[in-house]
Amino acid sequence: MLAIFKKEIHQFFSSITGYVAIILFLLANGLLLFVFPSTSLLDYGYANLDPLFELAPMIYLLLIPAITMRSLADEFKSGTMELLSTKPLSWWQIVMGKFTAGITVVFISLIPTLVYYIAIRQLSADPGNLDNGGITGSYIGLFLLGAVFTAIGVWSSSLTANAVVAFLTAIFTCYIFYYGFDALSKVPTFTGGADYYLQMAGIRFHYASISRGVIDSRDIVYFLSVIALMLYLTRLSLQRRIWD
């Protein structure tokens, strides 16, 4: 697993692609938070990072599938997956190596956003009024969201040798998990009955809950359960494709 992790990280940062992906994430956030008037923190009138945590999931919806689309698809395309399967590695070690490399990149992309927190703190008339608990919870929620998107991206990459197909599949699945259940709950047919449970089935409900600064075990269990499910489906997909 460690060898696969190192290989993935080295491949990601050995080319300009990895750096461009992270720079674009930071640039998009920077423009939306400090330049574009409709979303600028400077026009809010009070210091908070809520816009960052509202906008970042939408950016991750494109960024993370781009990061993970080649993780397994390229292995099938180049024929190295068959070679990996003959090594003394379990299916879980292969899957976890790819997944942990992906969430490491997500974590690295989050670190520079602390500059936004420092900027808001410096601009605030009273830094003590900042909701540090809510900001901390939002960062935890954003990391868990990134981990779920990474697991979905790795699963999507296990389905095909075409990286573009993997990318589109990951975007669609991430969108359904983040927006789909929430949108479905607003259909009049489900109002007053199943709407609450449909919301709970989606990521957005639990992400918003953690972003309030209260770390509820139910939200943590939800994120970990979705991650475990997607990684299990990835393992099944790899086994099926190799054995077939």
Automatic annotation (TrEMBL):
Annotated localization: Cell membrane
Topology relative to the membrane: Multi-pass membrane protein
Keywords linked to the UniProt accession: Cell membrane, Membrane, Transmembrane, Transmembrane helix
GO molecular function, one term: ABC-type transporter activity
InterPro entries (UniProt xref): ABC-2_transporter_component, Motility-assoc_ABC_perm_GldF
Transmembrane regions: 12-35, 55-73, 94-119, 139-156, 163-181, 220-238
Keyword Membrane attributed: yes
The protein, known as: Gliding motility-associated ABC transporter permease subunit GldF
Gene from which the chain derives: gldF
